[in-house]
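subagent[fold] <- orchestrator: predict structure for attached chain, return C-alpha cells only, no commentary.
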Amino acid sequence: MKAAFIKQTGPAENIIYGDLPDPKLGRSQCLIKVTAVDVNPIDVYVRSGMIGAPLEYPFILGRDLAGVVIATGSNVKGFKVGDRVWATNQGMGDRKGTFAELAAVDQKYLNLTPAGATDETVVALSLVGVTAYLGLVRDANLRAGQTVFVNGGSGGVGSAVVQIAKLHGAKVIATAGSEAKAAVCRELGADLVVNYKLEDVPAAVKAFAPAGVNIWWETLREPDFERAVSLLAMRGKMILMAGREARPAFPVGPFYVKDCSLHGFAMFNATLREQHSAGNALNRWIQEGKLKARIDRVLPLSQTAEAHRLQEQSTVHKTGELTGKIVLQPGA
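subagent[fold] -> orchestrator:
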C-alpha cells in the first residue's frame, strides 16, 4: 500500500510517500480502505520532534480517517464489509497512523459515517469536533444562555467550538485576524466577531458581556492570562488546549476571588465512552445539517509533505494562512 511516513523526526522534507506492507488484520479490527484523512497540529508536533513521543519506525502519520470497511476480524460485532466509517485518536500507542491507503482499526474506535455525509466532511470534523464537544459539554458543562469566547473562531477547533456552542444555545464571541476570517465566524453563527489586529478585544468583550465570559476557550500556545481572567465572569471556566512548553504568568489573586476554574484538556486522554458520546452527537448534527466542516483545501496524500509545511507555517509560525482543515485523499 502507499502511505505517508517518516523514518526519523525532523522537517517536513523527512516525510516519505511510498510503499509499506499492507496492515495485518487483528481479530477485533476492521480493515479500512481509507478515502480521506486530515492534518492536525499534533501531527506537526510529532513529526518535527517538538513532542518527544515514542515512535516505532517507519511511523505512519495521521490521527483521523474516513473510509469503507473491506474486511473484518473474527471478533468484530458492530461493523460489516461495506460500512462507511470514521475514526479519530489513532497514531499513538499500538494504534497505527492513518495516512495510508489501508488501515486496520480496532472496532472500539470506529463510528459509522452518517448517511449523506462526505468522507471529507466527517474526517475534517472528527478530532476537532470531539475536542470541542468534550471541552464544552463534559468539562465546561455548557448551558443555554451562557457566553463563550474562543480565540480563532475560523480555525479547525475554533469553528467547531463556535458551532457546538450555538447548538447549545450559547452566545459566542470569536476573534479573527482578517475580514475574510471574520465573515467565516459570522457564517458559523458567532454573535460577536472581533478583529484582533484592528480592534480592542477586551473593550469589545466587555461591551458585549458586561458580566463577563462564562467559558473562555483558549487556543493560543502562549495565553495572556491577565487579559483572559479579567474578562471571565464569576465562576467562569477556562479551557486550555495548547502550549505544552508555555510558562506564562498567571494572576492567581484575580482568578480565585471570582471562583473561576481552569481545565487542561487533551482529547487523547478521553475515555472510549466519552469519545463515543461525542461521536454520536457529531453524527446526529452532521446528518441534520447543523454542523459544517471548515476545509481549507483538499490535496492528494502524495502531497503530505506540502500539507505539513502549510500546517506548520500556520500553527507554529503563526502565519494564520489556513482557514480550516487540510484534507488528504489516498489514491487521488
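orchestrator: received. Logging for downstream: The longest strand covers residues 29-39. DSSP finds nine helices and 16 strands in the chain.
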